[in-house]
Structures are given as structure tokens and as C-alpha cells.
Amino acid sequence: MIMNKALTVLSACVDVRSGKRFTRGDEFSPAPNLEQAKRLIAAGCLPEEALKAVAGPKSDAEAALEERARTEAAEEAKRQREAAAAKAKRTGDLKQDGPTVAEYVAAGYPASQYPPKGYASRSTPEEIAAAVNAEKQAADLDNLTIKDLQDLAKVEEIELGDASKKDDIVAAIRAARAAR
């Protein structure tokens, strides 16, 4: 009897179909089915070659399907590489891991200077416009008088409490707007 090295047992195991026990060096016979071979390989009981030994010869249709799948995967990888290259060309050598406009403003930088030099924008044009508009409105508060700020607070239904200083009123309005 010729021993199939691909089915040589590497570690003790049991054939779940028959209950037969195999020890290291035995030939796993009869050959396991494909699923059992995968489990035995994963458990370290059979070598990787066992998969080829039990899979048997492939039909022309199976081989054609595998070749088609490999070709499609290669084409998809090529498309992704080309898309990444085109994006890099459009953005130049800009880094892609910069902050969003919200993160940039939260760090204390003005929205009007977004994106930071050397970084591509991670925010939509609408998000940037909203941040710049909010920044402009905040700057406009600083130019208003106390009376104008109090009138604005009434119109926007913002409770000022006992705030009478300009800085306190501006802070209350900004806090109320941010809470919305």
C-alpha cells in the first residue's frame, strides 16, 4: 500500500465519520471530505497539502470560475489603485489625515483659515460655510452695543439673567446659540 504524505497525521485525531483514532505518523484513511480536511488542518492534525489531496481534480467550469474571480479581483484592485492615484493627483501632496472644520475650530483656530496648510479638507463645503458664517456672527456680536445685544437676546428669546457687562451678555448669547 502506498502512503499518501499529504494525509500523514501530524497530531493525534479522530475521524468523526467512523470514530477511528489516528496517531502521529498514521495515514488518515479513508481520506476526509473537504470540510473535515479544513477542520483537521486548522487543528494542526493534517498538513496544508491535505486540502489539495482531498479536493481532487477541478472541472473545466470550476477552473474557469476561479480564473474569472482572480481576474475580477485583479481588475478591481487596479481600479482602486488608479482611483487613489487620481485623487492624489487632484489633491497634490496634501495630507489626508487633517482635522474636520469642527475639530479645527474646537482647537481654537478660525474657520476662515480652514483647511490647515498642507492638509486636504475632510469637511463638506456646506460644513465649512456654516462654520465661517458662525464665526462671522460671533465676530458681529463683538461690534454691537450693550443695548443692541440686549435687544438681540430678546428677539432670540435668550435669558440673560443678571448679565449686565458686554462680555457676559455676549457669552450668554453664544452659549445659547451653541446649545441649539
From TrEMBL:
<feature type="compositionally biased region" description="Basic and acidic residues">
    <location>
        <begin position="59"/>
        <end position="96"/>
    </location>
</feature>
<protein>
    <recommendedName>
        <fullName>Rho termination factor N-terminal domain-containing protein</fullName>
    </recommendedName>
</protein>
<feature type="region of interest" description="Disordered">
    <location>
        <begin position="56"/>
        <end position="99"/>
    </location>
</feature>
